[in-house]
């Protein structure tokens, strides 16, 4: 077995060699096979570059097709073998590790463009031949008047030897002479052609101008015309031709005959139709693909007026699990079954189903009452998915989420409509799936904003668009400031200051929370050092920093924290890391190990939002925490007087439990003096909230700490 080519150039050369072996035997060329391979190598390179171009350019494929004609590959078999070779080997040898589905789609479109370029070049070559024949015919007819026998022999040689069909008719349309090529085009019976009238050969697909041009020619108003025309053969099949009709005049310049030259383009047309079908239909399901659906949607949307449309965007729920567990073959069979069911749901006029890729499908309706019709279409689709699908003896449950967009044509582009449908579909999926949702412009705008924020996050961190505000932690016993919680903000260039609820979930989803969290920790620890240096007489201030669940599982958490503290020259007891209760529910020893190591170093660990995670209170004993941060929901009932007795009992019990476990209690969301006093009476240790101060710059906390020290 020979080794695979080492590099892209070797692979390209291998592809050119395979192409040469396939095409050279049917090529009319004086070149040797190695010389012919050198002619195909630059064409192979153009195909490879077009396969990977940032923007697909069909003209590259057309140029390669035309170059084949220039290289004397004019036998129809040469084109067929070329397309088979490109289909089988272009992606294999020139794919370069790109997305297989995208490469196959581009390869199909390149084949279509090559066939089109080949056809156009061959047509120009044929027209040149036709013109030469017409000139020969005219010259031969002129010579007849001068030397009948010589001219007749010359004309007959051209007439009978031509590879294209030739027919001569009088001005009434009666066919007088036909050559062998034309007879063969019509099935091999001269009687079926000679003596017929041209006007009998009408066809349902005749272009409107065909017979107008014919009438102008026989009246002597034009010398020739060229059209694409179909003819019915005697057996009922259709012959497609490139037809050129010229007017022959007598010696006095009067119209006398009409000369028709026909090139049989039936096979080429069928090939183009096949390539067009393959380029616009999904190979697995046979449904229209994204390309054809976009064309149809753009056509519908461009009509405007009172035309309306409805679109369902379907994504299967849990399809990846089926692929991962049963294999891609089972997944493909499931997609084929889903496609068949969807096809049966869209049978009304103006309805269409397509596969966009993967497990995403779309259905389009264009009826007058599109709101009702698209709702009914979505309901039919959901109902069609109810029955399980049997694959390899297993019954698979199929569910889907659908986003619906409905509206008037002409208001949005096809890309905007699909984007809205996609956003709405994900909204349905986020709501639990197995349902459909109607597009909401406000929800679309929020989703687009979220996407914009997500993509802008990495650059925002590099540009220094984040900053930290600090909210004081106040001791309830003496009212002194004991520290602060670091709260990160994003100064967005367009949206202004964004709170953590706007971007922290996005950072967690993208993994950026780890570098962002490291930056927050560095800034907060640096600020803690500065506070301790400036407020020594007021006592050391502690900084609280939030940890997300993603940071907890990051293997560098402990080392990063140690490095940051050592570089800043800050003792571990100056830092408190806050972890939400929900992140530690059911946590195993591996997850708790980093927190235990940090706690052993002297870093305080606070259990944030305590009371919202439904955790077992007994689990507190195994958690390496030293502080409970009581969620504000337990203290809202204390804002008024008298306080809610149930809330008082709950808080009193939690404080008692915490203190028995040697845990300090911090309360969030303190907004009134009555709350603060009640929490002090209940034994809470520290508190934070707007009653004391809103989050602000570090200088404000310094001023508060110094005021406590001097007051």
Estimated share of beta-strand residues: 15-25%
Distance between the termini: 90 Å
Low-pLDDT ranges: 1-5
Can you give the helix content as a percent range? 40-55%
Rg result: 40 Å
Counting DSSP H or I runs of 4 or more residues, the number of helices is 24
Mean pLDDT: 86
Please tell me what the overall shape is.
elongated
Number of strands: 21
Tell me what the structure shows.
- With 711 residues, the chain is of the alpha/beta class.
- 50% of the residues lie in helices and 19% in strands.
- Strands 13-14-16-17-18-19-20-21 form an 8-stranded mixed beta barrel, surrounded by 4 helices. A 5-stranded antiparallel beta sheet has the order 2-1-5-4-3, sandwiched between helices.
- Strand 14 and strand 15 form a beta hairpin.
- It is elongated and about 125 Å long.
- It starts with 7 loop residues before the first helix and ends with a helix.
